[in-house]
Design brief:
The chain is of the alpha/beta class. It has 9 helices and 7 strands.
Length: about 230
């Protein structure tokens, strides 16, 4: 989703958006967030831990689903209205018209991604899950794997098995902007590099995957891969 459907990432903007409405005093911790990112860049913490720490800093150790619901809906509306790439919106509609089942597979958290996916009329979501307590509060801890890199392929395959989808009879298109999704791109029947990062662009050129610029140009005219 991030930088594939949207122009920019959504996680940190969501944290700031939610913190400003739930507990504005927590924005005092915002200057700490870049240092947590530096710790991740230096490989001192994992990407999953990065997300957990930043969520705890800006939103606290637990979130009330009831209080969060209108904030998530507002952020989703804002994301689709202001942050969605035009080419992505066109291709989503095109694939829906062609009869594809639309599945959003993202490393972002399910607790806010589902609202965005709903506004885009996706059929299903495969996202990073949060631990939810018996009191229905969302903890600042990941349940299972962070849906990123090789884990994304595992989670997609697990979802397909749960849905009873036979891989041998499915035709899978997969779109991504980032080289971390190479395992799923290699596995898909049709792989597309969308407004790609430099590393993914180089890999797409090597593999012969179509390269789509979803930022400005109409989808039907922007395939540059072999």
């Amino acid at each position: 989703m991030d930088r594939t459907i949207t122009r920019t990432g959504t996680f940190t903007p969501f944290l700031i958006y939610a913190a400003a409405r739930l507990a504005p005093w927590r924005l005092l911790f915002a200057p700490v967030v870049p240092f947590v990112m530096l710790a991740y860049a230096a490989k001192l913490i994992s990407r999953a831990k990065l997300k957990e720490v930043n969520q705890r800093l800006l939103l606290g150790p637990h979130l009330s689903k009831e209080r969060l619901a209108p904030i998530v809906d507002g952020f989703a509306e804002r994301t689709v209205r202001l942050n969605a790439l035009p080419g992505a919106m066109e291709r989503i509609e095109q694939d829906r018209a062609d009869g594809y089942r639309l599945v959003l597979a993202t490393a972002s958290y399910r607790f806010y991604v589902e609202a965005i996916a709903g506004k885009l009329a996706f059929d299903d979501v495969i996202a990073t899950n949060s631990i939810i307590g018996l009191d229905a509060r969302i903890a600042a801890r990941i349940d299972g794997e962070n849906n990123y890199g090789p884990a994304k392929l595992r989670m997609v395959e697990s979802w397909m098995a749960a849905e009873g989808i036979d891989r041998s009879t499915a035709t899978i298109r997969f779109y991504s902007d980032h080289v971390s999704d190479a395992p799923v791109l290699e596995w898909a029947d049709e792989a597309f590099a969308t407004t790609p990062s430099p590393k993914l662009r180089a890999l797409a050129e090597k593999r012969g995957w179509p390269i789509l610029d979803w930022s400005r140009i109409a989808v039907g005219a922007n395939a540059t891969g072999a």
